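lol ok so funny story. i was supposed to be doing the assay writeup but got distracted and ended up predicting the structure for this chain instead. priorities right. anyway since i did it might as well share w the group, maybe its usefull for someone
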Amino acid sequence: MYEKKYKENTMIYPLRPIEYVFDKADFVHGKGLYLYDSNGKEYMDAISGLWNVSFGYGNEKINQAIIEQLKELQYVNLVCSSTVLNRNYSDRLISMLGEGFEKCLYVCSGSEAIEGAVKTARKYHRILGKPEKSKIVIFDISYHGTTYAAMSASGMDYEESINYGPTVPGFIRVKAPFILQDAPNSEERKREILEELHNTMKHADQIAAFLMEPVIGSAGIIPIPDWYISALKEYLEKDNILLICDEVATGFGRTGTMFHYMQMNIEPDILCIAKGIDNGTIPMGATIIGTKVMTTYQARHSHIEHFSTQMGNPMACAAAMEVLNFFDDNSLLEHINKIGNYLKSELKQKLFPLGIVREVRGMGLMIGIDLVDAAGMPLSLEKLFGVEGILRKSGLLVYPFSMDGQTGGISLFPAYCITKDDVDKMVSIIASKLKRYAKQNGIE
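and the output, tada:
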């Protein structure tokens, strides 16, 4: 009786049809890459929870770190106190990032990390005597979270966010540099995108920061290309516009380096992290403040007003410290790149003959499969939920993406413990089910 009432009263993601949210059984156990429901059915989780269980379910080292910390101290009020663990973790993380970073601001989620970054960037210019530099430039298909500033900064959810208005003002949307690999008008599209960036940056006297995902996640696994970064970098340096990198999804090895900006010819002034930070165990995230920004605050004896009760929870920090231990040598990143390349290669080989697949893109273990209908148009969100449901019933969990008729498909974020045999199984399921779906829907 209680279980029935629980399901009736549980909020679900409103856009997803209920038949694709609740199966006949709930998940009760997880191990490595796999989840098991109360009927004993096995599922391969190809999306690591919600992109956050990067080191697999039931990771013994991470779990044990939490247990040991719980025996000692489960909470400390960081507003007026601290722990050695808090200081050691932030020092170690920043040392892995290099000389350009100064402080770690603990938060509890990616959304909170974005909130902290927006506040930090705006106040930075205010204490420099330029309060008019308050606007934040974002991509039109970006996603940064669901708290008010994070939601207001999310281009892809703009139509939904206005229903909660008034939203936080001061965000300027520009076209994301998304161009299909074989697009016939790619050079023309590139010029249009760069021209819009140029016209936007003419108002640099009003712009505080540029906020971006180095690989746009929720809209379809879209890496920001070098030609865009090169152009953007000039504007940022010339007009003292801060760069905020949202690495909530891409951080901690997901794309084959510790953080994705390390693959780009650019360094953020503020870095937002969460998700894989502690393997999805206890809510945790951080806003990492760069040296230039922090030096300005310190010189003017100013501070950043941003905290919440559970920030820097010692158990979360213990788990996060164990995550850093996995990166003590390069073997993990080597595995992510090697197995990620194999996954991408197998997907291309098995899926490209299917008319439903337009493109496979991404890097490391962050991959998007772009799907189209019989007319060559991106599959609608409703149809993508259908594809997701078919794969779920086959024991494979994936994540659908859809963006304004530009792209639609499914994304893969498997845990780092994935093996070659797991890849073969995953690709086999996707290929067979997409082939059948395409045939049933006349997609040649």
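Confidence is low (pLDDT under 50) at residues 1-6. The domain at 2-55+329-440 is CATH 3.90.1150.10 (Aspartate Aminotransferase, domain 1).
back to the writeup now i swear
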